[in-house]
Amino acid sequence: MLENGFADREPSQVMVEDGKVPESKRSCFSRRHCLFFVLVLTAVLFFYCTDIKEMTTDWNQTKWWIPFKDHRQNLGSLNNDPLSSELTGFQTQSGSTVLLQTENITATNMTNRTATNTKASVVTQQLAKTIPPSPVPYKSPGLYLVEYPYKYGFIINEPKTCEQQKPFLVLMVPVALHNRAHRDIIRSTWGGESLVLGKVVKLFFLLGLQTGEGVQQLQDQLLQESREHHDLLQSDFLDCYKNLTIKTMVMLEWLDSHCSITSYAMKIDSDMFLNVPRLVHMLSSAPKTNYMTGLVARGAAVLRGPRSKWFVPVELYSSSVYPRYALGLGYVLSIDLPKKLILASRHVKAIYIEDVYLGLCMQYLGIPPTEPPNWGYFQVFPVRYSRCAYSRLIATTTHDDTNRVRDWKDFKKPGPYC
Ligand SMILES: *[C@@H]1O[C@H](CO)[C@@H](O)[C@H](O)[C@H]1NC(C)=O
Ligand SMILES: *[C@@H]1O[C@H](CO)[C@@H](O)[C@H](O)[C@H]1NC(C)=O
Ligand SMILES: *[C@@H]1O[C@H](CO)[C@@H](O)[C@H](O)[C@H]1NC(C)=O
Ligand SMILES: *[C@@H]1O[C@H](CO)[C@@H](O)[C@H](O)[C@H]1NC(C)=O
Ligand SMILES: *[C@@H]1O[C@H](CO)[C@@H](O)[C@H](O)[C@H]1NC(C)=O
């Protein structure tokens, strides 16, 4: 969760609790004394046509115009703030308008689809022992619908890369289609690390589809980029914030079908710094199964203000807190988990907040996220670059104005870090 905004804190004091944190545009506003403040901005949805209940049942070819407006927002809180703390922060992106169209979910029988896979059947049998056998039929949550489970296909794929290169770790980076600059920066910094401590590391970018003007041109550029780098995975869902859960689930499906040879996968946002050697080092002594780690949020409040960026109506999720989940800025999975999470997703109603959704699926599986061995490893508030500080962490958000390439070059220079 977390898209825009967030707060700052001392690098060494990160523990996310009781709150949501912004996931992409992050910027810092102060230093110490800030531990208890999370500022988050967000876009607001004004839903014209209807109330939520109505939408919940309105499940045919109805279109809604949803204007997003600039806006500040309650992010819940980190640390020990009361769940209700309304934090107003800074402004975010400019308003934009999105046409949301719902369509019938034509019954791609996902249970059936995965069940035909023999390996999946084995897992299903194993899971059947621990999971109550009462599948909740998928029901559209209306406006907050996530069109998943659904069988999405790949337009650009790298089906054989893992098989051929046998990575120990794959880095999966969701990124907007047009954001070639971000991809190039990642390729020339931490994403370019292909052999770390003797282990093969592979990088992939996850993309959806775009609509509107210039689509064909953009697609041609993507194909060219794919021929150059062989690291793009493009699926046929519409790429937008509300579809991030789809992106994550498609990622898990891809890992399960095309990269089960790896030992671990990490989903990491494109604006992060990643210390790959420290990550590989941590993983070399990590559990091999049922392992998900990152910055683990506990007792995060469900935001009920309809204007909240992460508003979730009671109809969608009734409890007032989320289960423990690893923040979406960067989490690591052992490779047995994608299959299990996909199976769990057939029983857990999809919500659009992707990291929370994985938390719900983990809860369903009865597998709690694992705390990292060092609680400073994953940082949600940007740590200012220094060789010493960055050598001690695994992943941190960065400021927008960070010169990542310069910092990376400095970080890779030989010599002591501290
Ligand atoms: C589909 O939507 C239209 C307009 O919102 C509504 O009048 C109609 O009853 C709906 N049909 C079904 C089957 O829900
Ligand atoms: C959508 O569902 C309705 C009712 O279930 C059905 O009559 C209609 O043909 C469906 N439309 C499409 C495009 O599948
Ligand atoms: C999906 O497949 C499962 C097992 O094959 C079956 O029990 C279920 O009824 C199917 N659901 C639909 C909607 O076809
Ligand atoms: C899956 O569905 C297809 C057609 O819908 C059916 O022929 C097949 O038997 C199903 N497989 C399983 C394992 O249920
Ligand atoms: C999410 O993706 C689906 C599948 O492409 C699409 O039908 C839907 O409109 C998308 N959602 C939004 C909010 O754009």
Automatic annotation (TrEMBL):
It is found in: Golgi apparatus membrane. Its EC number is 2.4.1.-. Keywords: Glycoprotein, Glycosyltransferase, Golgi apparatus, Lipid metabolism, Membrane, Signal-anchor, Transferase, Transmembrane, Transmembrane helix. It holds the Pfam family Galactosyl_T. The chain crosses the membrane at residues 29-48. Gene3D superfamilies: 3.90.550.50. It is a single-pass type II membrane protein. Pathway: Protein modification; protein glycosylation. GO terms for cellular component: Golgi membrane. One of its GO terms (biological process) is protein O-linked glycosylation. GO terms for molecular function: N-acetyl-beta-D-glucosaminide beta-(1,3)-galactosyltransferase activity. Belongs to the glycosyltransferase 31 family. This is Hexosyltransferase. It comes from Dissostichus eleginoides.
